[in-house]
Each structure stands twice: as C-alpha cells, then as structure tokens.
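# step 3/5: fold
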Amino acid sequence: MSNSVPDENWWSVASSADGRILTAVYQTGSGGGIYTSTNFGNTWMPDNAPNLYWTAVASSADGSKLVAGGYINTGYSIGPIYTSTNMGVDWISNNAPLEHWSAMADSADGNKMVALTSQSPPAGIFTAQTAATPRLNIASGNNDNLAFSWIVPSTNFVLEQNVDLTTTNWMTLTNAPTLNLTNLQDEVFLPGTNNRDFFRLVEQ
C-alpha cells in the first residue's frame, strides 16, 4: 500500500529483523540521500546523510546500525562508505577505500560489514569487523522462568553466572541458546529463584 515515502529514484532498501525500522537510499540528477522509517514504513524522514549518489545500504537486526555506500559524481563513479549507529540520525565516514559500491551486508549485531564493488578493475569483496558488545536483556518468561536474550553476535559469546561480584568465580552456563528467528536473538531460559545472581556475556 502507499505511504508517505517521497517519489525518488530508489536504489536499495534495508530492514530490521522485525520490519519496524526501514532505511532506503536514492539518487537524483545531482546526488542523492537516505530516508528512514521507524514505524514499518508508515512515515519516512530524511537522514542527515551527505549528498552522494547512494547505491547500497544494509542494516543490523535491530535497525540501529547501518552501512551505506555511494559514489561522488557521475563522471567518476567511485565513493566512500558511511556508517550510522543511531538509526541514521548521524552518519560518519571511515577508512574504506573509494570504490564503486554495488551491494552491502551487515551481521545481525551490525559489527561485521561486507561490501561489494562491481567496478573492474578492481572488483572484489571488502569486509570490516568492529568489537562486538552485545547487550544482555533479562525478562520474566513463562512458568516463573527468567528469559535471557541478546542479538546474535558476529563473534562467539557465552553466558556466565556468579553469586558475588567481589569474586572471580564466574561459571559458564551450559544451557545452549536457542535462536529466535523473528528478531535474531539468542535466548536462554533459566528457572527463577529467590537467590541473588549476576549474569554477563563473555566473548570466547
């Protein structure tokens, strides 16, 4: 169905895992821009992105981390890659080479990015990895269980438990996480107790 997205020459669209946050890039005769929706595409707002001929965009599972590529002008069609960590509110350039970017991909946590350049020569695939810092979520589950969840990280993490933060006696839980495909979250359910316990995620 129609919505408030403007009529533009759209080139690429990215979505969060649940479809709530959408990001789209476009080109005009004099450059281009990026729009983001935070309500399943019902309304769209322009991002504070530079004026480039945008060609590709990708999103993390929660829609907060974005990566987009484009080129500077039609006569010399190579350009930079920009990233955002706040749903497109701010975009920053980085040390990616100037290439003719044609496709982007993002890991679920947004910390591993893949970019494809189709210009030949050189044509190829570029990757970038940043430190994974997943946030551990804790909520009440069914049957008095505690539900622990975190976005599927681009590196391996394990859930640890301790009864006292003043000690180093952290115990790695052997409960294998289950992947929730609706939001790309790893989930672990533990029985609730009246004891005081502390939990953390540790990279392997």
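# step 4/5: annotate
The CA atoms of residues 45 and 123 lie 33 Å apart.
# step 5/5: archive (pending)
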